[in-house]
Design goal:
Helices cover about 70% and strands about 0% of the residues. The chain is mainly α. The two termini are about 110 Å apart. Pfam families: SLT.
């Protein structure tokens, strides 16, 4: 039942009660409004029976339709918000995945670059070692100056290791291939102890700087990995 129907029914009922009261009042001698007043009130009242049944149905259908449309709009709004939130979360996940992939690719590139540089460095070191002269390529002399001994070392020691080799020889013998420690008996450029160890590099170890350089270079490579490794140890311990 619509609001119009309820209101009409209530008004009609009140009018009917008032009319009955008027009749009773007349019978008892009480003064009440005239019939004209009742007719006027009744004329302004819409009785439930006077509202067509089809209009009542239309009012009810219209109300239900409005409710359904409001519910549908609310559902659409909620669905849209949910979809937007899901899209935001997915976008964040995609961005994080892209960043992780980019970081992994950059790390891979750095590792590949480092490996390439290492191989190039090792190749250069091998090439440098291949270019050095052997001890037997120098003609024997009766004596050698410091400059001559250093020139021989430059040709026998790899270029990237020469300075370290030179630092050790500077401290051990000041490039004197006949230097001998009176206390320990260490001998030669690299102060081999005992000096006879250098015989493994050549029988002329006492008089040939090239033989001493050969032995000293082999010793540093085998024990410390390189002359620079030997120099690092020497700096920490003042012997090698």
């Amino acid at each position: 039942m619509s609001r119009i129907s309820v209101r009409g029914f209530a008004v009609a009922s009140a009018t009917a009660v008032t009319t009955v009261g008027a009749v009773v009042g007349v019978a008892s001698g009480n003064t009440q409004p005239s019939n004209d007043d009742f007719e006027a009130a009744a004329a302004n009242t819409t009785l439930l029976a006077d509202v067509p049944l089809g209009q009542q149905a239309q009012v009810e259908v219209s109300s239900l339709t409005q409710q359904a449309e409001a519910q549908a709009a609310a559902a659409d709004s909620a669905a849209q918000k949910s979809a937007e939130e899901a899209a935001r979360i997915q976008a964040a996940k995609d961005a994080e995945a892209k960043k992780a992939a980019a970081d992994a690719e950059a790390e891979k590139a750095r590792a590949e670059k480092a490996e390439k540089e290492r191989k190039e460095r090792e190749a250069a070191e091998r090439a440098s070692r291949d270019e050095v002269r052997s001890a037997t390529s120098f003609a024997p002399q009766t004596s050698y100056s410091v400059a001559e001994v250093q020139a021989m070392a430059r040709q026998m020691v790899p270029g990237d290791q020469f300075q370290c080799f030179s630092n050790i020889v500077d401290h051990e013998s000041t490039w004197n291939y006949r230097a001998q420690n009176p206390s320990s008996g260490a001998y030669g450029l690299v102060q081999a102890l005992p000096g006879s160890k250098m015989a493994s590099a050549g029988a002329d170890w006492r008089t040939n700087p090239a033989t001493q350089i050969k032995w000293g270079l082999n010793y540093m490579n085998e024990r410390y990995g390189s002359p620079c490794g030997a120099w690092s140890f020497w700096q920490a311990n003042h012997w090698y």
